[in-house]
Amino acid sequence: MLALIVGRGALPAAVAAAQDDMPLICALKGNTPDNLDVDVTFRIEHLGSFLVTLGAHGVTEVCFCGAIDRPVIDPDQLDADTQPLVPILTSAVSGGEDSALRAVLGIFEQTGFAVRGAHDLAPDLLPPTGTLTKAMAPMDVIASLPQAEAVLHAQGQADQGQACILRAGDVIAREDGRGTDAMLGDLTEPYSGTGAVSDPVEFVFDMVGDALDAAADWLSGPVAEQRTRAKGGYLFKGPKPGQDMRVDLPTIGPSTAMRAAEAGLDGIVIAGGGVMVLDQPQVVRILDAMGMFLWVR
Q: Which of 89, 105, 121 is the last residue of a domain?
């Protein structure tokens, strides 16, 4: 049996939908996925007991998917089954993101669970290589790719983000712990009171019903006004060097495309086989409507 260890966002539901049998959905407290009912909620201080619970449900495979905040361990909440894991958990939480992931994966594997990657369970999330939009990447983008790759390599070695933005050959933004959409949002003033692009757009999509009509409504609003002040450039995203592809594989989706358009970028380049795309048809529709490119290289 498969268990999804899920966090926030749309990825867990996409992975669950790709399975023939519904997995057991398990969420770290405070990190609820979108559009997916949670079967088991656990605290990091109860990880040992949680592993026992997985075994009791007949789980043999686990998949980590979705965004989570790094938990703070409350020593008073530790249960007896988790006490032996304290040295590993302490090291994981205090170290960098990569070391934390490796430590947590090691705990699950040593307990006997096979760790599966989200892209392995939902292979359609990995798009084919090539240009997926009507617009093609211009020559200056192609010429600057070695620089973008070097930036991502340096960020990966420093255990930092998986994306950057280049404009006119210069790196103008680097992803930090807030994620890609927040980095894109830094390039322009938000058009909503909260600054969260996904919430108002999802509301419009839900109310209008037809995705293309909704995209047209969105494109005629404040984002189109931002686009008139475009300065070009592109988002580049890919996995870190030496990254364990079973967990924390980079992801983009409709909100990323919207943010990139709002920021006035010309397009998006992602690493082939290393970046998942949520709702690929909608991503392509948004970028096509804005005359932007999506290149999977």
A: 121
